[in-house]
Design a protein that fits this description.
Length: 227
């Protein structure tokens, strides 16, 4: 039997949907409603847990079983606090910039940054690596912030093309330079675990701007990452 809480959840959702919604999007923004943060994290976790309980019940699973009874709350907390935490702008990393006393004016490359995201079409994992590079315009960024930018952009429902653009744009914003390059090479579980079930393919996307639009600079970057 479906949990009676479903009725109250639907009533709350109807109340929210009665608010005038605006969809803000561009070529690289994640599609979000204007009221995306009306509910705080705790309320979102409670509502998602109730919804997920209903899904499990519809599938015929016994939520009285010790192994399953806490699954809805675990999934809800994982969604809000972990794998989709990049939806919340409050979690955006604050860049730490330093002076460049050595006047290093060549490209800086960080390879093989782990990407853990989720396909927005099927909500299954996208797993791979990101390679990023920039040329300093007078400031350098703390290396861990490059990883955090990739992580922040990844932790939301995504398509890989948008993910690549979001990383590049956030790097340009943080560094104050157009001289940025990003490559993402990822394995999509929506291809390997369903549909065609091809476990061997990966998808590669790239964003080049500023000096990286020039063939010589771009080829130097590709050489450094072994591509």
């Amino acid at each position: 039997m479906i949990n009676n809480n479903t009725i109250s959840i639907l009533n709350i959702e109807q109340a929210i949907s009665d608010i005038e919604m605006e969809h803000h999007s561009s070529s690289f923004d994640t599609p979000m409603r204007a009221d995306a943060f009306v509910l705080d994290d705790d309320r979102k976790i409670n509502l998602i847990a109730q919804h997920f309980s209903s899904i499990m019940e519809i599938l015929g699973m016994d939520l009285e079983d010790d192994s399953l009874k806490d699954t809805p709350k675990r999934v809800a907390k994982m969604y809000v606090k972990e794998i989709f935490s990049g939806l919340n702008p409050e979690n955006k990393p604050v860049p730490t910039l330093f002076n460049n006393p050595f006047k290093y004016n060549q490209m800086l490359v960080e390879r093989n940054i782990s990407v853990f995201s989720n396909c927005e079409h099927h909500f299954v994992p996208i797993v791979g690596k990101a390679h990023v590079a920039y040329i300093s315009n007078g400031k350098v960024i703390g290396l861990s912030k490059l990883n955090r930018i990739v992580q922040f952009c990844s932790q939301r429902p995504q398509v890989q093309e948008r993910l690549t653009m979001q990383i590049a744009n956030m790097l340009k914003e943080a560094l104050g330079t157009e001289d940025v390059a990003v490559i993402v090479d990822a394995h999509h579980h929506c291809v390997s675990s369903r549909g065609i079930r091809d476990s061997g393919s990966t998808t590669l996307t790239a964003a080049y701007s500023g000096k990286f639009s020039e063939t010589e600079t771009r080829n130097e970057f590709l050489k450094y990452i072994g591509s």
